[in-house]
Design a protein that fits this description.
With 513 residues, the chain is mostly helical. The chain is built from 21 helices and 13 strands. Helix 12 packs across helix 13 and helix 17 packs antiparallel against helix 21. The protein starts with 5 loop residues before the first strand and ends in a 5-residue tail after the last helix. The structure holds glutamic acid.
Length: 513
Amino acid sequence: MTKEVRVRFAPSPTGALHIGGLRTALYNYLFARKMGGKFLLRIEDTDQTRFVPGAEEYIQESLDWMGISPDESPWKPGDVGPYRQSERKASYMSYALDLIEKGHAYYAFDTAEELEAMRERLTAARVVQPQYNSITRTQMKNSLTLSPEEVKERLASGDPYVIRAKLPLKEEVRFHDLIRGWVLVHSSTLDDKVLMKSDGMPTYHLANIVDDHLMGITHVIRGEEWLPSAPLHVLLYRFFGWEDTMPQFAHLPLLLKPDGNGKLSKRDGDKLGFPVFPLNWTDPFTGEKSSGFRETGYLPDALLNFLAFLGWNPGDEREIFSLDELIEAFSIERIGKSGTKFDIAKAKWFNEHYLRSSAQEDLIAYLQQDAQAAGTTLSHEKAGAIVSLLRDRVTFPGDFWRDSQFISHAPIEFDLEVASKKWNADAATLLQAYATALESGVAAPFDGTAAKALLESTAEATGIKLGKVMQAVRLAVTGLGAGPDLMEVFAILGPQEVAKRIRFALDTLAIVD
Ligand code: GLU
């Protein structure tokens, strides 16, 4: 029997969840579902100095909104909890001590000044990357250089210390990444990373490896920014003697700014004119506000589909995938290596698709809600007609209300540029006659076809070519130079309202020629 696939998303609650993090969560979710495995969420909150209140709740709400909730998490614990590292704090020290015992880690007592002095010394000696490593550790204050008695004494007297990994001097560390293939790193380029900090908390590296092991993680799918840490992680698995159950790694390609110049960062939020966070976020310390995809009007299905394609493709031309279809089609082999540009136009395209294929009733509900919020009551029938009119022209749900303002409110002013070009005596004559015809009573139903037939017969009777005055007709009734099917607009407004608007326009607009 093959082992059950278990993957995890392991965010640190240091602020709003970045869209790249959401993609990582999505890929983990898709892989777990595809393989019939489990998707875990672990909160990596060992760095208390970076803790941001509300961040964990934000992560939970984002995943729920996207419909990719974890099978096991702090709020839905399974058998391998707790799922917050701060609550597992007590267990990490014994693992660090085990590594010391095995000769793969050591106590280091160096003060901040001593570390700084080392860096200065190395910089003066033109060492490009001064670091605490297999060479420099021999000149520092640690349990490898001090006598066992002194180490014991220092520990007993409560001297502050950290525990560092003891990396081999000359060794090629290699591992197979499911996306990148074989990765080879020479251990001389790695430093002796701190595993336990002087405050008794583990660092990310130690906690991450211990927990992945204890939680039975089979695949680590995470962003490319963690690739440089992977060789140390591979070594830690070996140091602990856990090589047999070491997870397989898959480092996802970077998300790039739209122009391809550099990584899309949290700071890009709103600066580039689009959100980079799933939900609105207010920084609890600075009060700075960032907009979210949800509040901007993106539908979760559209965002899912968009994110899935940021780095993955199904290998054919298809682009529209429901969550179930994504699960079916997903494979790590089809994730690319190179960075993917964040193309917001594509996100809009997906949103338009999903919005336009939503149920009519859902769209009516969006419109009625927005109207109500603005203090207008729209009947179900009228809202339905507006939705049908605008369905193929909207990107976001809010567009139905925004783009139908000219229906709810008669124009009080007119697009002057269009007026100066298109408003003329012929238009006025035709509109005069059309208004009179409308006022004298029209047979029900006054639908788009009836509105058009009456306009055409009026044009014929007045001898005016419709094509030449159509824009003026639109201007008179809507105040605008362009918009959706005008005859359908007339049908929604009804004959009396159209006539009233025409009368107002005839009184207001001056004829230029
Ligand atoms: N806590 C890390 C983060 O914030 C997790 C990285 C990993 O998945 O190993 O992204």
